[in-house]
Amino acid sequence: MKTKQPFHHGSLKQALLDASGALLDQQGPEGVTIRAIAREVGVSHAAPVNHYKDREALLTALATVLFKDILASVQEKLSDKNLPASTRISAFAIVLFEYAMAYPNRYRLLWHTGLVNHDDPELLDVMDQFYNACRAEIAGAGLCSEQDTETYAIALWSLVHGYTDLRLTGMFEAKNDTISGRPRLEAMLDMFLNPSHAKSP
Fold first, then answer.
1. Where is the HTH tetR-type domain (predicted)?
2. Same domain, 63 and 21
3. Which of 12, 13, 115, 137 has the highest count of CB atoms within 10 angstroms of its CB?
């Protein structure tokens, strides 16, 4: 008869995060509980407290890992220094949107104020890195003449979040712009970043 090997201190912490991510994908944010995670990992219900004081702490740690993944994807896209300014700025929106379409429950967790502590220093740091990198690209493109970079970034942030949420709820379908033939989000970003490209049908 095989006996279950005890977790080392570091490996249990990672196992709890891995199990949280799997449960999140399967059941959504509400399905990720300390008891369910402990059951998945095969430890007592009290064991996770040695690493995460409560459910919010664990989900905040998971959200931090997920946001780091998103930031890494953006940085990979921006590694090509020859990309046009509008393409570089669009990368932030497109990466976030594609992530939401591929992992809707992970995306929902990132903004779930009832489950995630958005004042957590590590999570704040990675979110600030994402946002500040976006503002830096906007400033570098010289797009802001009558508004500051923060207003421009908030407008971009609102555009992508609004469209993404409407897609996730099924209010909008996946369609292409009938004139340019481009996916709807890409067409909206082009209209936003290059107003001269917008024209009436």
1. 10-70
2. no
3. 137
